[in-house]
Predict the structure.
Amino acid sequence: MTPSERQLERVRYRRRRARNRGAVAVVSTLVVLGGLAVLITQSPGWPRVRETYFNVGDARAVLPDVATAFWLNIRLFLVAEVFILVVAIAVAIIRVVPAPALAPIKLLVTIYTDVFRGTPTILVVFLVGFGVPALGLAGLPTSLFWLGVIALTLSYGAYVSEVLRAGIVSIHPTQWASGRALGLSYGQTMRHIVLPQAVRRVAPPLLNDFVSLQKDTALLSTIGLVEALRVAQVDAGRTFAFTGYVVAAAFFIVATIPLARFTDYLTVRSLRRENGI
Amino acid sequence: MKITTSRGLTTIAALALALTAACAPTDSEGEADKTKATPASTSLADCQAADLPVLADGKLTVATDDPAFEPWFIDDDPSNGKGFESAVAYAVADKLGFAKGDVTWVKAGFNQAVQAGKKNFDVDINQFSITADRAKAVDFSSPYYSAAQGIITLEGSKYAKAASLADLKDAKIGAQIATTSLEAVKQIDPSTDPLVYDDTTKAAQALQNKQVDAIVADLPTAYYLTAAELDGATIAGQFQPTTGESEQFGLLLAKGSKLTPCVSAAVDALADDGTLAELEKEWLSQATDVPELK
């Protein structure tokens, strides 16, 4: 089967078009980024900015301390993540279960999501970090690490539960009906049929919240935890040079890139599966 | 529909144009002369309000942080002339020939004050300790105050009776970020790293919550905290910082500011004629019953 003349013409045209578009993209990138680079490095204040923010010697000096402190950010993130998922799934399920006896609990969790989604995370951190110990009750944690984890869990549990709830209610009612028709109980249908689909459907926004959480571990510096950002701040306070901030930022970026790429990959995959693109 | 190269080029041109329009350099702040902070060899006679290169004509713009804490400022109002640093600022302005009404106060947080680039003030007075490292980024005037460090604990804490710095070795210590106090903690050499707070109020809160056993702050701040902010707290002792430079406060100016020699000359004059000592007595009258810890 040889392609017709017209088909060959089409193929040629498409190739030409792809080449042209590629060339335009390359030139455009060079002009814009090159222009930006020239503008920045030619600006009158650039030598001062370079000295203050991009000093290699300063970066080397502060790197080990920031790296050690960043391990605390990672630990906070990993521990908080587990608790957040538990809280979020529980809250999401309570909000969708159609059991009238659960009404008071439903009311409470609705208030919880409303309040903690509406409160700035840094405020929650502050109130938990300084307020809970001030109560002086025995049995409450006093360690800053756990206070920080509690604060992040309260704040992010509300966000993530809403994401999961949206996933659950987006599953088509026929899925529920099929499950019940097969003789599964409500709980079994939820666990084996609805939840897996719901989680898969909201994976991208879910991972987005996790990236956000990774960065928000820096907010815990306000209650005295010395994490990567705080180490950079201490260094800046001592020397009035801000290279440490740039180093800390680099750590956060490097830590979130794998998650971000993974999110992209999942998004594309689910698009392909669901829409046959 | 064929996308042509010419259309792509038009887009590029438009982008490039937008870019240059959006960020043309504003001023030539980089031209500021790169001299090191000079000791005052300028005489006050050369520093009269009319000839000084200030931000607003005939006005001296002075910055400090918000909130402004006692005993440096009273009632969080720098313009009332009360509190040690407010009084010093007005005395300096007076030496330079500015009347009281010609002093304008603005707010500048720590980061604003020390950032490179244009400043929104002529001078900033906010308990800035003078160090060689910092002098690379900003100018300092001559010092107007030398402070010792105070250690604050709760009454009844076992550390309240510390007889030496070594007794505090196992204490959990808190301090404010970007202060000499935080550096001075190293002299105590505590077994756990110090906790770092955004401001003294948060550090005080942590002490009250028993999240830390002691906080270190310069002595005047320590007095204020124990007198006004904290219930049942006491100053366990004071010590002279020996790590790095001594604890001396200077007025902060932009790097290479033409005002620096004049402001330094004014501060030196105030030191010579005893004004600084008087103001210290008036606002920072320090009891002598705080034991010196070694």
Remarks:
- Chain B is about 30% helix and 20% strand.
- The radius of gyration of chain B is 23 Å.
- The mean pLDDT of chain B is 81.
